[in-house]
Amino acid sequence: MPACIIGLLSLCRAAQNFPEMKYGSIWFVFMIQFDGNDDIGRGNGRSPIFNLFTIYACSPVRTTAAAKGDEAVQVELEKPQTLNGIRGAVIFYLLAYLLSWSIWGTFIFIPQIVDFAPLLIMIGAYGPFMAALILTRAAGGKGAARQWFRAVFRWRPVWRWILLGGLLLPLLIALVHLVLYRVFVGTFTLSTDPPWYWAVSVVPINILVLAWFGSAVEEFGWQGFALPRLTAQMHPLLANLLHGVLWGTWHLPLYLSEDWSGNHQAIWLLYGITLSLAPLMYWLTRRANGSVVPAILLHAATNLYTDMYEGEEVFAGSLADNFVAIKTGIYVVIALVLIVATRGWLGYKGADRQ
């Protein structure tokens, strides 16, 4: 699988559409340092484990004399200077796979700890987030990691996109599901024990909880680290399609666990979701000037609404019939509309866009 990832990403270098955006050669030096000095090259005070991933990336750096506004921050995120380009993306995907699959493999291959599978599934979902943090800090230190996190986790300037991603789009999907269910399946009734409005009233809180303690946290790595590096070297549409394949493949080991909520869906539906959802997530992130918060909330909200249809807290009985297929169909339609409306650029605002 790692070899396949390297092959896919290497082939995509031949399809680069932006020759003027190349950064030149990048050299990677892996070093183990044990002394506590602060100077680069003589030790940086990090633990030996962290220094095992110490990577020095040498590439031209664009500077801006004027103060950076939201637009400048987004262009910077789209053209990252730390572990940039295809090589940075390859290292990230490999490390994300390694971290997540190692954690998930423990309960898949060690039956004695299967009772901890739900917890380990949640911890494994942090693999892309941790891979982004590790690589950013390894290349630029604590300051670079903090700067990256502040850039991708901004709330205040992007409220309308947060509402769109975390509430309006998932609500649209939920309403369409109810209409289609009523037309093609039959009537449904609301729960009275407990009252349905109790469950509905805590939806915003549950979305925020799932954003941090569910699979949605993976968007820090996908949208905040991987895609800026892919789109700096290839067309945004091609980058998102490639990411959709890699994102779907990242989930595959979870099909071996009965505790994963998505193991009932067909694999082709999984790839349908990731391939169509990737452009939507990317567009939301770009519209929010690089903040991944709207994408995280959209991911968390759609997962929550799926659970609500399959449970009996809101409806007196499961409404999960064909829900995944309906959700996938809506994502495909939205993705196609975005692709046509943006001519495939999906909100990309790079200074070198042609």
What letter string, H or E per element, gives the SSE order?
Answer: HEHEHHHHHHHHHHHH
Shape: globular
Strand order of the largest sheet: 1-2
Structural class: mainly alpha
The percentage of residues in β strands lies in under 5%
Tell me about the biggest sheet?
Answer: 2 strands, antiparallel
Low-pLDDT parts are 2-69
Rg, alpha carbons? 21 Å
Number of strands: 2
For the record, the count of structural domains works out to 1
> Helix tally?
14
Euclidean distance between termini CA atoms: 34 Å
> Roughly what is the average pLDDT, rounded to an integer?
76
Query: What's the helical proportion of residues?
Result: 55-70%
Describe this entry's structure for a reader.
The chain is mainly alpha-helical. It has one domain (2-24, 59-341). The protein has helices at 2-13, 48-52, 70-78, 85-109, 117-124, 127-152, 159-184, 196-201, 203-213, 219-231, 236-251, 267-287, 293-310, 323-341; strands spanning 30-31, 54-55. The longest helix has 26 residues, at 127-152.
Please specify the SSE layout and strand pairing.
Elements: H1 2-13, E1 30-31, H2 48-52, E2 54-55, H3 70-78, H4 85-109, H5 117-124, H6 127-152, H7 159-184, H8 196-201, H9 203-213, H10 219-231, H11 236-251, H12 267-287, H13 293-310, H14 323-341
Which characteristics define this entry?
354 residues, mainly alpha, 14 helices, 2 strands, 1% strand, disordered N terminus
Condensed summary:
The protein has 354 residues and is mainly alpha-helical. The chain has helices spanning 2-13, 48-52, 70-78, 85-109, 117-124, 127-152, 159-184, 196-201, 203-213, 219-231, 236-251, 267-287, 293-310, 323-341, and strands at residues 30-31, 54-55. A two-stranded antiparallel sheet has the order 1-2.
